[in-house]
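Honest question from a wet-lab person: if I give you the sequences of every part of a complex, can you actually get the arrangement of the whole thing, not just the pieces? Trying it with mine:
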Amino acid sequence: MMIKLAVVGLGKMGLSHLAMIKAHPGVTLEAICDSTGYVLDVLNKYTGLKTFSDYSSMLNEAELDAVLIATPSRYHADMVKAALDRGLHVFCEKPLCLSVKDAEELTALAQQKGLVNQVGYHYRFVGAFQEVKRLLDANAIGTVTHVLAEAYGPVVLKPKGSTWRTQRTEGGGCLYDYAAHPINLVNWYFGEPHGVGGTVLNSIFSKETDDEVYSTLYFGDGKSAQVSVNWSDESYRKMSAKITIQGTAGRIYADRQECQVFLRDGATIPQGYQTGWNVRYTTDLTEPVWFYIRGEEYSSQLDYFVRQIQQKSGDNVNSFANAAATDRVIAMMIADAEKGPATGADSASLAAPVHKQLSLSGRLLGLLRGR
Amino acid sequence: MDHLLFGDNQFFGVNHMSEEKARAQAMRFQDTSAIIDVLDIAYDTGIKTFMCTTHDRIETVCDHMRANPQRYQDFVFYPCMPYAHKYANAMTDYGMLGAIKHFMPNEGFIDAAMRGGMSLAKKDIEGITTLLIDAEMKMFQGLKTPVIFLQNVVVDLLLGLGFKDAFRIFATHVKARYNAEPGFITMNLPMLLDVLDEVGIENPIVCANINKIGFRVCGGVEAYERALHERKFRAIAMSVFASGAIPAKEAIEWVCQQPNIESIVFGASSQTNIHKTWKLVEQYWKASAQ
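Yes, you can. This is the full assembly:
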């Protein structure tokens, strides 16, 4: 069965999605929609694609199974809802919504209607990050105690004019655009944190949003994750997300290119691994795709979306529910940053993660015993 | 085209295996003189073609070649355009239309202004495309550029969108204005060959990943093999070592055994690796010709 699909929003992400999905052997591209008439006219003139400048008209007139939404983030909620109401499967760019309530309502609606729902957190389709998931599921590094989730890249390198990407209220900024990715990876690996602290959302060049994001995420069992993200870092050629995970039996480091694993003596050694250092490269970990533009993961996530529709699968590695979890963490971080730092006066009331922490006397005792 | 062409990924912190290695290379090649040193080694070994992106820093390499015409009299550039990052960033900042305007020469050239303004107004991509090509080619003035490539991100984006006319426009302009052969870099070789056929670009020069382990060959190894056996095109193999995943000897031996390959493009930073690759190609290309 060919999936009849429309792409909505033809900015950078939308165009690249359009090029990949149009080349997919299981898809017929029924329509494209954007508010810029000029872009539509050029595409129509040279590619013959059917164009709409109004989303509702497109939903009324085009015969569709699914939509791919890559509009500015603040439009996501209404557009996704309209598509779900018409029984269409939805792939939406990240972040899903700027309001947790919207994200949760859309999740419930998609589930209730039994429609495939997916969000473009493409790092879950990167071979090296998938390998990390396999290693964690196999308990390769024992009990995880700490995670460092990072992303750096050159997006805002000087003060700029105003677009939706320069305003937090429209979903612009380092937190929504960049930090969402490493946070989403942490959610994938360890679920949702029960709290966040020490959040810094700082501007470097942007007037109306953040350019660097730092935060600590606290999990129930003493595990914590630090998020460190900066999109004003020109020393990186392009966006680079990385994750470092400390466990009782070893350590994992991964970025898009490779997965480096150190396994201690006594670790449960997964198949193909050994005690000590192990390195797996993208060349080993990457599955081939039908069409490539700028990274297999972008192609893979779309292929996965198409297959989920074909197989009528209710399960999705990047479901709205998963994206809503990331939206909730983002909301906690914004609230935490607004609260500001703990000062001497109120520090007594702060909920410090006491689990596993030894009392001062316990620590002294440990020292005396040579621990 | 020569059998062996020198690439530039290693100079600009591009490494498909390791970010650490990429960064170390970016540091090492911070000064253009370090790039020139390696180009000199390649040139003196006999590798006279430099296949390079239209990265801003290539301009200083071009200046050096222009300043020393005797030393580099056989030096040949194969420019690969555009340097996609600057356009992608501009698109994020200004949107598609704004990005195009941003890179248009906006004063001084009446012809350019006419071509640009008129084509923008008429939604005619021909004028815009040729202007962008001219802007990218400016740094190579006075140097030999017998083949000019369209980069894979752009080729594959146009290919996916079905923007077929763009390939014809690029080919026509490159031939007419620069007396050069058009070349196309792609990650989707079988699909691109069909489209180039369709728009009437005959026996095109196409550069694609061709390696023993099938790393990044979209459409599948079998479709690539069929293309090499059956299609009429001039193939340049890139990523032959699959970023180091295949030992050099094994990689070159395999590529040299494939039919229809005219050149191999490779990147290296050390004299040892440049010499080694040169010798391997000499050895196995001859062997396969017999």
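Two things worth pointing out. The first strand of chain B starts at residue 4 and ends at 6. The CA atoms of residues 241 and 251 of chain B lie 6 Å apart.
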